[in-house]
C-alpha cells in the first residue's frame, strides 16, 4: 500500500534549521524526500537521520527543475512541499491525515496553506506577515513545476484546482540574519533579471515578485516601478493583489508619495472593510502627517474591529496580524507621549507588551516613564505582572533593561537574582553594572577585550575612570574613541583641548553624555556639557531629553539655545508642540513657523490642521504644498 503523504524538499547548506523542520513533520508525513543541490555542511548527515531518500542534484539556477526532481521520487498519494527554514504547526496532524485519506478527486488538485513569515529579528511579532502557498497537492504524473524562481504548479490539464485548508506553516527565512547570511536577494535577482524581458515585463505576478526582491535589495525606485506596473494589470481576485497593494503603499509613503499611498490605502479599505490591514495603514499615514487626533481615532477603530472579530472567531487581518492590535496600541502610545499624556502612553505600552512581550524597546520606554512618577518598588510590581519573576529568564531581562535606563534600585534588586541563577553576564552588562553601582575595579578593566563595548559605553567608562585604554575595547573606530577620551579628560581637568576632535563625532559624544547623565555622573556630565558640547550636541541632548519625557531638562537647554539663536528646527518644533500641549496655540505658532522655515517637516501640517484657526491653517497649507506637492491630493488635508 502506497504511503498517504510524502514530504518533498530541496536543500542546500541548511544544517541550522533542517532538524527543526523534519521534527515538526514527524507525526504528519509517511515519507521524506530530500534533494540536495550542493551542501558542504552537515545538511545531508542531518537528513540521513530522518530518511534514506536523500538525492543529489546539480544546481542549475532553476528552482522548478529541483522541485520536479524531488516530486519525481515521491510515492505518496499526496505531496507536501516545505523549505528547510519552515516548520509546521504541532497540532491537528491526525485531522489533516484523515481529511486527505477521505478526499477523492480524479483530476490534479491541491490545497492552499497559510504561511506565517517572520521578518526582522525573528522575535518581533510586528514583523510577521501572513501569506498563502499551494503546498499540498495530489501526486499525479502530469503535475509539475514551471518557472525558474517563484515556481508554480501546472499539469497537462492546466493549473490544478487549489482550495484553502486551515493548516499553518511557519517560515523564518526572511529574518535579517538569514537574509544576510544567504544573500538571498542577490541570488534571486540574478535569476529574475534574466527573465525580465518580453512578455514577462508585463506579467503582473512576475512584476510583483521582482518588486519584492528589489525591495529586499534596497533598490526601492526600481521596486516602485515594477510594483506600479503590476498593479495596472492585477485585480482583487489575484492571490497577490492585497500584498502588492500593501507593499506599494508602504513604499510610496517611504518615498514621500503620500497622495499615491493614500489612493492605494483607501482602495484596500474599500475592498476589505472588515479587516484591519489598510485601516491601520491609514492611521500610520495620518500620524506621519501630524494628524494625531485623527490617527488615534483610526487606531482605536482597528482595535475594536480586532476585538469584535475575535469574539466571533473570525480573522481580522489578511496580511499582518499586528495591524489589528500591536501596531495600533504602540502607535497610540507614541501619540499620547507626544501629546504629553504619559498616563495614556503607559496604558497603551502595557497593552502592546501584553500582545508582544518581546518588544523590549517598548518595555524600556514603559519602565523609564514609570520611574519618573512612581517609586521603584511599585514600578517593579507593575512590570513583574507582565514579566513574572518566577520565570528565571525574566529576571535576566529586567536586569538588562534596568541597566539600560540607569536605575540603581532596579539593578540592585535584580542583580542578586541573576547572580543566583549563575547567568554569565556579558562584558557590556558587567561594565554598565559596575559604572552604575560604583564598584569598578582593576579586574573589570583587565577582563575587557577588543570589540566588546559599544563606543559610547567604552568612552564613558574611560572618562569616568580616567583609563584611556578602555576606549580600545570599542566596537567602532577605536582611534577616534581614544582621541575623544583624551580631549574630554583634558577638558575636565581644565586643560586646553582640541575642539576639532568633535568633527564627525558629535553623535558619538552625544550618546556618551546621555550615558553619563543616566548613570548619575552629574559633575562630569555638566563639565563636558559646559566646556565641550557644540551647538549640534546641545540640540541633540535637548531633543533627547524632550523625547524621553524629561521636559524640564529639555526646556532649560532649549531656552539657552533660543537666547543664543542656536535652536535647530526639531527643537523649535518640539517647543511648539509643548505649547500646544499646554493649550496655547498662539505661542506655538511662531515656533512651528520658524521650524518649518529652517527645515520642512512633513508632519507640521497636521499640527496646524488640528490646532490652528482655519485661517492660519489655510495660509500655512499653501506654503506647505509647495514643499510637499505629493500630499496635495490627500483628502484629509
Any descriptors?
globular, 637 residues, single chain
Structural class: alpha/beta
Mean pLDDT: 92
Cross-sheet strand order for the largest sheet: 3-2-1-4-7-6-10-5
Shape annotation: globular
Main beta-sheet annotation:
8 strands, mixed
Would you count the extended β strands for me?
10
Low-pLDDT ranges? none
- Helix run count: 30
Helix content: 55-70%
Provide the gyration radius in Å.
29 Å
Give the DSSP E fraction (strand runs of 2 or more residues).
5-15%
Distance between the termini: 68 Å
Topology of this protein?
Elements: E1 5-11, H1 18-24, E2 31-36, H2 43-48, E3 54-56, H3 63-72, E4 78-81, E5 86-88, H4 93-102, E6 109-118, E7 128-138, E8 144-146, E9 152-154, E10 161-171, H5 176-182, H6 184-195, H7 204-216, H8 220-233, H9 241-254, H10 258-271, H11 277-288, H12 292-312, H13 326-339, H14 342-355, H15 360-371, H16 376-386, H17 392-405, H18 408-421, H19 427-437, H20 442-447, H21 455-465, H22 478-492, H23 506-518, H24 522-531, H25 535-547, H26 551-563, H27 569-581, H28 585-598, H29 604-611, H30 614-627
Parallel strand pairs: 1-2, 1-4, 2-3, 6-10
Antiparallel strand pairs: 4-7, 5-10, 6-7, 8-9
Structure commentary:
The chain is of the alpha/beta class and 637 residues long. Helices cover 57% and strands 10% of the residues. The protein has 30 helices and 10 strands. The protein has helices spanning 18-24, 43-48, 63-72, 93-102, 176-182, 184-195, 204-216, 220-233, 241-254, 258-271, 277-288, 292-312, 326-339, 342-355, 360-371, 376-386, 392-405, 408-421, 427-437, 442-447, 455-465, 478-492, 506-518, 522-531, 535-547, 551-563, 569-581, 585-598, 604-611, 614-627, and strands at 5-11, 31-36, 54-56, 78-81, 86-88, 109-118, 128-138, 144-146, 152-154, 161-171. Strand 2, helix 2 and strand 3 (54-56) form a beta-alpha-beta unit. It is globular, with a radius of gyration of 29 Å. The model has no long low-confidence stretch (mean pLDDT 92).
Amino acid at each position: 500500500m502506497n504511503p498517504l503523504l510524502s514530504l518533498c524538499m530541496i536543500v542546500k547548506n541548511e544544517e541550522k534549521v533542517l532538524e527543526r523542520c523534519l521534527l515538526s513533520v514527524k507525526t504528519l508525513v509517511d515519507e521524506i524526500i530530500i534533494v540536495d543541490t550542493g551542501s558542504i555542511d552537515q545538511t545531508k548527515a542531518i537528513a540521513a537521520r530522518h530518511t534514506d531518500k536523500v538525492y543529489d542534484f546539480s544546481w542549475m539556477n532553476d528552482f522548478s527543475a529541483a522541485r520536479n526532481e524531488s516530486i519525481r521520487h515521491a510515492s505518496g498519494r499526496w505531496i507536501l512541499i516545505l523549505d528547510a527554514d519552515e516548520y509546521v504547526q504541532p497540532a491537528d496532524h491526525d485531522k489533516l491525515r484523515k481529511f486527505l485519506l477521505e478526499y477523492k478527486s480524479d483530476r490534479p488538485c491541491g490545497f492552499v496553506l497559510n504561511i506565517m513569515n517572520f521578518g526582522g529579528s525573528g522575535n518581533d511579532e510586528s514583523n510577521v506577515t501572513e501569506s498563502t502557498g499551494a503546498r499540498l497537492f495530489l501526486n499525479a504524473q502530469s503535475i509539475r513545476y514551471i518557472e525558474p524562481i517563484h515556481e508554480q504548479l501546472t499539469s497537462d490539464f492546466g493549473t490544478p484546482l487549489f482550495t484553502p485548508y486551515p493548516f499553518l506553516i511557519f517560515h523564518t527565512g526572511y529574518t535579517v540574519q538569514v537574509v544576510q547570511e544567504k544573500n538571498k536577494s542577490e541570488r534571486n535577482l540574478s535569476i529574475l533579471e534574466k527573465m525580465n524581458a518580453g512578455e514577462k515585463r508585463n506579467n503582473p505576478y512576475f512584476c510583483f515578485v521582482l518588486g519584492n526582491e528589489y525591495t529586499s535589495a534596497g533598490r526601492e525606485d526600481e521596486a516602485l516601478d515594477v510594483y506600479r506596473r503590476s498593479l495596472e494589470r492585477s485585480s482583487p481576485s489575484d492571490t497577490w493583489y492585497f500584498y502588492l497593494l500593501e507593499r506599494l503603499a508602504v513604499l510610496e509613503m517611504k518615498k514621500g508619495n503620500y497622495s499615491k499611498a493614500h489612493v492605494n490605502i483607501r482602495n484596500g479599505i474599500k475592498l476589505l472593510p472588515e479587516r484591519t490591514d489598510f485601516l491601520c495603514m491609514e492611521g500610520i499615514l495620518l500620524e506621519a502627517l501630524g494628524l494625531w487626533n485623527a490617527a488615534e481615532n483610526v487606531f482605536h477603530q482597528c482595535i475594536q474591529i480586532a476585538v469584535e472579530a475575535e469574539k466571533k472567531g473570525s480573522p481580522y487581518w489578511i496580511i499582518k496580524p499586528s495591524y489589528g492590535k500591536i501596531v495600533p496600541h504602540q502607535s497610540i502610545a507614541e501619540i499620547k507621549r507626544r501629546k504629553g499624556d504619559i498616563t495614556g502612553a503607559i496604558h497603551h505600552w502595557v497593552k502592546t507588551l501584553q500582545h508582544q512581550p518581546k518588544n523590549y524597546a517598548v518595555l524600556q520606554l514603559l519602565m523609564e516613564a514609570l520611574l519618573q512618577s512612581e517609586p521603584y518598588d511599585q514600578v517593579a510590581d507593575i512590570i513583574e505582572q507582565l514579566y513574572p519573576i518566577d520565570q528565571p529568564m525574566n529576571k535576566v531581562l529586567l536586569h538588562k533593561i534596568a541597566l539600560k535606563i540607569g536605575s540603581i534600585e532596579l539593578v540592585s534588586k535584580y542583580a542578586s537574582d541573576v547572580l543566583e541563577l549563575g547567568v554569565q553576564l556579558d562584558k557590556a552588562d558587567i561594565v554598565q553594572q559596575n559604572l552604575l553601582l560604583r564598584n569598578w575595579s582593576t579586574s573589570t578593566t583587565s577582563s575587557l577585550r577588543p570589540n566588546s563595548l559599544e563606543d559610547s559605553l567604552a568612552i564613558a567608562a574611560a572618562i569616568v575612570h580616567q583609563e584611556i585604554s578602555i576606549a580600545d575595547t570599542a566596537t567602532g573606530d577605536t582611534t577616534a574613541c581614544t582621541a575623544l577620551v583624551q580631549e574630554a579628560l583634558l577638558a575636565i581637568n581644565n586643560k586646553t583641548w582640541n575642539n576639532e576632535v568633535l568633527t564627525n563625532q558629535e553623535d558619538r559624544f552625544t550618546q556618551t553624555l546621555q550615558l553619563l547623565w543616566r548613570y548619575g555622573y552629574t559633575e562630569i556630565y555638566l563639565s563636558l556639557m559646559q566646556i565641550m558640547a557644540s551647538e549640534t550636541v546641545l540640540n541633540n541632548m535637548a531633543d533627547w531629553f524632550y523625547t524621553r519625557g524629561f521636559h524640564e531638562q529639555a526646556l532649560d537647554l532649549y531656552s539657552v539655545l533660543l537666547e543664543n539663536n542656536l535652536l535647530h528646527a526639531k527643537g523649535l518644533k518640539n517647543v511648539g508642540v509643548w505649547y500646544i500641549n499646554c493649550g496655547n496655540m498662539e505661542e506655538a505658532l511662531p515656533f512651528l513657523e520658524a521650524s518649518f522655515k529652517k527645515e520642512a517637516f512633513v508632519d507640521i501640517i497636521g499640527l496646524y490642521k488640528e490646532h490652528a484657526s482655519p485661517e492660519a491653517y489655510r495660509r500655512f497649507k499653501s506654503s506647505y504644498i509647495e514643499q510637499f506637492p505629493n500630499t496635495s491630493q490627500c483628502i484629509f488635508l
